[in-house]
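Input chain follows. Return structure tokens only.
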Amino acid sequence: MASGTDFPFNIMEVAELLRLNIRRRSGTRVAYADCPICGDRRGKLGLYPEIDTWRCYHCGESGGMLALYGKTHGVGNSQAYQEICEALAVGSPGREYTPKTKAEPVTDVPQVQRASPQDIHRTLTALLALLTLSHTHREHLRAKRGLTDGQIGQFGFRSTPPGHLCRPIAARLIKQGCVVEGVPGFYMAKDGAWTMKFYNRTSGIVIPLRGADGLLQGLQIRLDHPIKKEGDPPEKSGIKYLPFTSTGKPMGVTSGNPIHFVGDSSARVVYVTEGALKADITHALTGRTFAATVGVNNTMGLDELFAFLRRNGTEEIVEAEDMDKYCNPNVSRGASKVHRLAVENGLQCRRLVWNPNYKGIDDWLLALRRKEMKKKEREQMNFKEMYLNGMCPFDYIDGCADQWRNRPDIGVSAPVFLGLTHEEYEMFRQKPASLKERLDGQRRTQKFRVYQLDFKGIETYPFAFRGIEAMYKAGFEQPPAESYQLVHDGELTHPRDQTEKAVLEHIFSLCNDELPEGYRGHSLSMSDIVELYDGDNRDFFYCDEFKFIPVRFDAERAKLLEEADGDG
């Protein structure tokens, strides 16, 4: 085993790089952390700084620093050494493992001024021309994000290059006459060669950030593997986006606070959201103009942009931040900043609210497009399916029968076309009232109510539009009925043999597409309460992410529709 002095880092630096949760320490000899290999969260991983080794007393794994990093990320020792050196800005920049004496810590790293907008645009444009888009990333943008190949090419998405190509690419750009000093993401290595801050561990989709003038002002990376912070719970996804910046690197420069702009810079209405990719997708779906911050509270560049837009003819700003602005104080503050800056620049501003089942406006619009496709599928339902689900009156069967008679090319028999058995079809021919009686016996009516959080006078709830676990973490054993209001009291017709689960899912669908008559709330979503009642029976369900969970709910304490209307 090599001693710690053989490496330009120590095991505690590797532990910090891996964001291990240190539970306790025994002087300087040993620290106990959660194990990233087996996932044990009781502090069973012993870290021994004097000999730079480790051992997990739960799963039995052990070894040196490279093994700890390699086993965590599934890479060999050579790759582990390279990536650790890259992340810590120490050691050899090469790909192979070559132990060196420990480097002195960097205390004063020289930074440079940002290059001109024209130079940044020219260099980043040339950089993108040298990069490609992987098949995996292209399929993600097509299948998950709803973009066409033409739109993907138009927006200029690329994949991050492998770490060992950073130097050659930087050298090629310089040879082409591009300026790299002062361009975000570029910095000078210790041997004086220019390189870029692309790492294998932070691979992902490269998103170009353009200003209202059309110039490239920076890049952002959508990570393939989100980065978790120390202490994050297992269910938290971690950081998904990173700026392409070289802050803290020799001769590096900050990425600044770029505002991504897509669309018409003289549009009367401009939408503001957080996330460049989200803005690009929404622009592609709607054709509307979007400005996007790279962080919900990173609004410094909006003041200058709004002033420019007002001079250019824009009259209205639409705040379209994610729907967790109703439960996340940080997002709520960011949304308020957008409104304040718009008003200060003489622009009208309104808040855009959509189905809270979808966090981002892009998610919502993609869902609408998919629902339209499902609507076309529903149009293919036969008469019996529609009648048992309360989607048509009984006499609708006459029109369906006429449709069959006038379409000899349908290619199916009348009973099949109508969804009836041969016996039911004969009833229809001879005594339609008997068929209605039989079908009525195959369906039933379920009465239900919907309760939603009342936001009048309250900006946020910690569990608004979130699952039941968020409600528990907020300190509630059951939904606080006094914070809710009744928004709908209706009924649903459904097949008699349909399960309770299917009935609740049917209600969810009914209250998400074309809302029922008399419905006074937003689309049914997480944190809402659904009541099924019939006679003396009353059952309450919390709308969770993928299911309905039975809960206790004191409906008598909830605000009634009349009370809610009176407050307005």
